[in-house]
């Protein structure tokens, strides 16, 4: 495996030397790890015990008296082409979004061919038959965010329509227009739903936070939108996308130059977090955040996954690229 095709490291680092060596030897000779290690010990200042593999994972010793362990879930081995029943393989889908529901119930996919139509597919349905979901009249969707009990749709005018979902009716019955009068002349351009909280970005790149995914809460009080200071950036550079994890523990944002930011200090006591940190390495055009990690689509269509994310390290450690290019993913 040519590691350097997928892992993005700082230039000139110890790992760069390791990766150049493994790529030049392992890919050309198809040689086993032992031969690569022998090569490394011969042509660099590394010890022969540089790489070791066991049931736990692959261990790499760096020159700074540090051990690095690569372990965890695989990112899959290949892409499978899927054609939902009743559609033709030439169908062009503009976007697809998945809701975060318990695994035992499967996942619902929301697909659109244009701004004026919406379909729902249950991933446990072997034939992937799409069900048509009617949109509110005169609404053209530009963005969709799905969570366990609601589907938030953002239209071209910045209005939000919410479709309440339930176990008995997983694709919902009707849409409710969200009252955004509190925001005044603000026009939202992006929304993201977690399990409890909703985040949004407006046309000026400002960030807003709201508790509750439903149009109204139990006390029938209108939930308040809280303004959150965006990262300080040069004039003309602003946030355009925001993405929260299904469990509300991760929050990532994207600006109009493709730079990525992570919100630090998120907790049950401080659900809005405390600060923004820049996450370097890639120019990004789309993000998807799970409970454990972050996936991004680069400006050139390549996909990458962020590794090392934890409560103590919300930014993670490094990017790893996934083979293939896409126009959209979920």
UniProtKB/TrEMBL annotation:
One Pfam family in the UniProt entry: Tectonin
Xref: InterPro entries: Beta-propeller_rpt_TECPR (IPR006624), RCC1/BLIP-II (IPR009091)
Entry's transmembrane regions: none
Domain of life from the UniProt record: Eukaryota
PANTHER family: RUBY-EYE2-LIKE PROTEIN (PTHR23287), TECTONIN BETA-PROPELLER REPEAT-CONTAINING PROTEIN 2 (PTHR23287:SF16)
Protein name: Tectonin beta-propeller repeat-containing protein 2
Classification lineage: Eukaryota, Metazoa, Chordata, Craniata, Vertebrata
């Amino acid at each position: 495996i040519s590691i350097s095709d997928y892992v993005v490291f700082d230039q000139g680092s110890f790992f760069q030397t390791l990766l150049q060596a493994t790529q030049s030897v392992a890919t050309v000779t198809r040689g086993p790890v032992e031969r690569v290690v022998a090569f490394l010990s011969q042509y660099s200042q590394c010890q022969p015990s540089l790489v070791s593999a066991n049931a736990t994972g692959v261990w790499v010793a760096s020159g700074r008296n540090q051990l690095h362990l690569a372990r965890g879930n695989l990112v899959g081995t290949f892409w499978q082409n899927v054609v939902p029943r009743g559609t033709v393989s030439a169908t062009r889908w503009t976007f697809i979004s998945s809701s975060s529901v318990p695994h035992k119930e499967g996942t619902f996919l929301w697909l659109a061919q244009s701004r004026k139509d919406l379909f729902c597919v249950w991933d446990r349905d072997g034939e992937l038959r799409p069900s048509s979901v009617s949109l509110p009249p005169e609404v053209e969707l530009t963005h969709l965010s799905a969570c366990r009990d609601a589907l938030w749709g953002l239209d071209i005018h910045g209005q939000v329509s919410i479709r309440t979902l339930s176990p008995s009716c997983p694709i919902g019955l009707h849409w409710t227009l969200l009252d955004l009068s509190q925001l005044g002349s603000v026009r939202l351009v992006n929304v993201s739903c977690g399990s409890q909280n909703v985040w949004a970005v407006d046309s000026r790149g400002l960030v807003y936070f709201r508790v509750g995914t439903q149009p109204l809460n139990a006390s029938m009080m209108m939930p308040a939108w809280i303004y959150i200071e965006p990262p300080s950036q040069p004039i003309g550079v602003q946030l355009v996308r925001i993405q929260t994890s299904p469990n509300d523990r991760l929050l990532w944002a994207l600006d109009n130059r493709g730079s990525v930011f992570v919100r630090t200090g998120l907790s049950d006591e401080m659900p809005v977090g405390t600060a923004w940190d820049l996450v370097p390495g890639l120019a990004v055009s789309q993000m998807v955040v799970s409970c454990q990690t972050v996936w991004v689509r680069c400006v050139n269509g390549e996909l990458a996954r962020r590794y090392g994310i934890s409560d103590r390290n919300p930014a993670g450690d490094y990017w790893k690229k996934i083979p293939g290019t896409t126009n959209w993913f979920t």
